Model the fold of this input.
Amino acid sequence: MEIKKVVIDGINIALIRNDKVLISDVQSALDTMATVQYEVDAKHIIIHKSLISEDFFDLKRYPSKVYKLQGKDCYCWRFLYVY
Done:
């Protein structure tokens, strides 16, 4: 995983690049968030959609994902995924 730090108006933003799917479940999302915060001290992430598994977005199949992420103080994080 390659993490590039970008600062815009004093806000640290992590730009993530990788060769394969990076986020496939709640644990991998939390691991990515922890790595980003540790390495570049950012709570804003820009990530390409191809790095996130399609199953991760299937909330009907796994409705507990939303609650697990909210329960980990993740409400202050900002994600932007691009096509």
User: Anything to note?
Assistant: The helical segments are 26-40, 64-70. The beta strands are 2-8, 11-17, 44-48, 78-82. The mean pLDDT is 80.
